[in-house]
């Protein structure tokens, strides 16, 4: 199997055309013609991942987060492009899936809806007419402290922040979620949910949620992405007939 053939398999699981228009997905580092001998799925690229690839002879990566975030004005190692260029220099190919995986059927957003047992599920944060990165709907009524415990247990994290309105709310019967960072879609869930869970809340967004009387919970960024990625790895392994390793830094979980 070469990188192009691997790309085609991945595209079946999470079609790249469904990603946000400005997102960087697909083959971002390396060559489509390169042979895939040893494949690793990693949530991010990092120095630790680079070292792992070298030590364990991984020649191809599939990453959730894009390996390259902005246009390359040059190829200088003196710029912030050093890490992607280190992979390129070593001949390590990288396919990134990001929001294509968020919106995919059975992807990151659907996995969150399943985990929190959302019924009458709706879609928001749309990338096209039928796909979106957010899910909202009704849940069995649950108290404030029980909701905190549920979030910690379901997302395997002890690091959550809440706004003032969350602390003033006794119970919840509807919920909205976006994997990763979804505060830019806060306005879309006003009047659709009692509670909005996502990562990377700013002080400004907490105050905005208070104004709209929307309970807000921030969890660690990757905690909302890991459940769907674990499913992706299992499905991909079946498709290509290989047992795959999924690497992420649990410091950030």
Helix content: 25-40%
What's the CATH first level of the largest domain? Alpha Beta
Total domain modules: 2
Query: How many H/I helices?
Result: 10
- Order of strands side by side in the largest beta sheet? 5-6-8-9-10-7
> Which structural category fits the helices and strands?
alpha/beta
CATH level 4 superfamily of the largest domain: NIF3 (NGG1p interacting factor 3)-like
Which overall shape is indicated by the principal axes computed on the Cα atoms? elongated
Provide the CATH topology of the largest domain: Udp-n-acetylmuramoylalanyl-d-glutamate--2,6- Diaminopimelate Ligase, Chain: A, domain 1
Order of helices and strands: HEEHEHEHHEEHEHEHEHEHE
- Biggest sheet layout: 6 strands, mixed
What radius of gyration results from the CA coordinates? 19 Å
Taken as a percent bin, the fraction of beta residues is 15-25%
Rounded to the nearest angstrom, the distance between the terminal CA atoms is: 33 Å
Number of strands: 11
CATH architecture of the largest domain: 3-Layer(aba) Sandwich
What are the low-pLDDT stretches, counting only 5+ consecutive residues below 50? none
Mean pLDDT: 94
């Amino acid at each position: 199997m070469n990188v192009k053939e691997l790309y085609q398999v991945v595209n079946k699981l999470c079609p790249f055309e469904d990603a946000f228009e400005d997102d960087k997905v697909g083959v971002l580092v390396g060559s489509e013609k390169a042979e895939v001998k040893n494949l690793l799925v990693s949530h991010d690229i990092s120095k630790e991942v680079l070292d792992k690839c070298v030590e364990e002879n991984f020649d191809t990566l599939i990453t959730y987060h894009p390996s390259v975030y902005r246009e390359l004005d040059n190829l200088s190692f003196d710029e912030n492009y050093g890490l992607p260029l280190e992979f390129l220099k070593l001949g390590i190919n990288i396919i990134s899936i990001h929001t294509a995986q968020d919106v995919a059927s059975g992807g990151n957003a659907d996995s969150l809806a399943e985990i929190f047992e959302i019924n009458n599920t709706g879609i928001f944060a749309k990338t096209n007419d039928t796909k979106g990165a957010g899910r909202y709907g009704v849940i069995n009524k649950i108290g404030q402290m029980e909701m905190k415990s549920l979030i910690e247990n379901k997302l395997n994290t002890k690091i959550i922040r809440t706004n003032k309105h969350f602390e003033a709310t006794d119970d919840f019967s509807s919920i909205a979620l976006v994997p990763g960072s979804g505060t830019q879609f806060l306005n879309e869930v006003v009047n659709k949910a009692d509670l909005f869970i996502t990562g990377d809340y700013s002080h400004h967004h907490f105050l905005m949620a208070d104004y709209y009387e929307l309970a807000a919970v921030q969890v660690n960024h990757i905690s909302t992405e890991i459940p769907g990625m674990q499913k992706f790895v299992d499905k991909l392994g079946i498709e290509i007939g290989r047992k795959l390793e999924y690497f992420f830094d649990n410091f950030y979980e």
